[in-house]
Design a protein that fits this description.
Blueprint lengths: L1 H32 L10 E5 L25 H9 L16 H4 L8 H4 L4 E5 L3 E6 L5 E6 L14 E7 L2 E7 L19 E10 L2 E9 L8 E9 L14 H17 L2
Parallel strand pairs: 4-5
Antiparallel strand pairs: 1-2, 1-9, 2-3, 3-4, 5-6, 6-7, 7-8, 8-9
């Protein structure tokens, strides 16, 4: 009887040891397979230089059509020749046909990021939001999901994103053709495909390398780069542009021209 109890106790001990080892092994596999869930942090309030042009090659003072890095289709060149920007491009047109100035239309994207005002980046697991101070607009980037089968054309397009290392890669389609790419009037069509690489170079510097691929407006893709600095003020303020502000804009321009001519 005593011998039987000893044998049974040994079997129980062996069983406990076996299952304990199995649990430890499975736990180790589970920990090894657990993906990295901490994404890089792009959050903060950011401010750029407010350049009127996206082109990285503008030897003639941001004069659209004179860049060495952009090749236009006939449609794109015709559109470009028809624009009358209110700012930049070496000229100021009082009869501007910039709808963002004339009728307070949305800047759209990527022009909203070029505007010399601040924006805030807010991150979550499913979305990254860009909140723009100018005209209180925003841009959502849906993370780790495909594009809609046929997105409706919009001012800001449909953007989806994913992380590759420390870089946020954004793929955007679904734009309308009613906005300019930037302040000097580079055109865009509904076929615009925008790819961006956002990365935080250091704590106070955010860089966006973007590729513009629009076969209706340009014969080949071209690249731009935007650099932003962290704004430590900690808050955004309301800044709304209305259609009546166009009159103030024209008066300011006329006054500036008169003062220059009388010097």
């Amino acid at each position: 009887m005593r011998r039987t109890l000893v044998i049974n106790s040994a079997l129980v001990a062996i069983g406990i040891a076996f299952f304990s080892a199995l649990l430890v092994e499975n736990s180790g596999h589970a920990q090894a397979a657990k993906p990295q869930t901490t994404a890089p942090d792009l959050s903060g309030i950011w401010l750029g230089k407010g350049s009127p042009s996206l082109s990285r090659s503008d030897p003639r003072g941001n004069k659209a059509g004179m860049e060495g890095d952009i090749s236009y289709t006939p449609w794109g060149l015709e559109r470009l020749k028809s624009v009358k920007p209110g700012i930049g491009g070496g000229e100021v047109f009082l009869d501007t046909n910039d709808l963002a100035l004339k009728f307070a239309d949305p800047d759209g994207y990527p022009r909203a990021s070029i505007h010399p005002m601040r924006f805030k980046v807010v991150q979550s697991a499913d979305f990254i939001y860009f909140l723009y101070e100018y005209n209180q607009s925003y841009r959502p980037i849906a993370m780790n999901r495909p594009h809609s089968p046929d997105p409706d054309p919009t001012w800001f397009g449909e953007a989806v994103g994913k992380w590759e290392g420390d870089t946020l890669i954004v793929d955007a389609i679904g734009f309308n053709d009613r906005a300019w790419l930037d302040g000097i009037g580079h055109p865009r069509s509904e076929k615009l495909h925008l790819v961006e690489h956002w990365r935080r170079m250091d704590h106070d510097t955010l860089v966006n390398d973007l590729t513009i691929d629009d076969p209706v407006a340009y014969t080949k893709p071209w690249n731009g780069q935007l650099i932003f600095k962290l704004d430590h003020s900690g808050e955004l303020h309301e800044s709304i542009y209305t259609a009546t502000d166009e009159l103030r804009f024209k008066n300011d321009v006329v006054t500036t021209i008169d003062k220059t001519a009388n010097k």
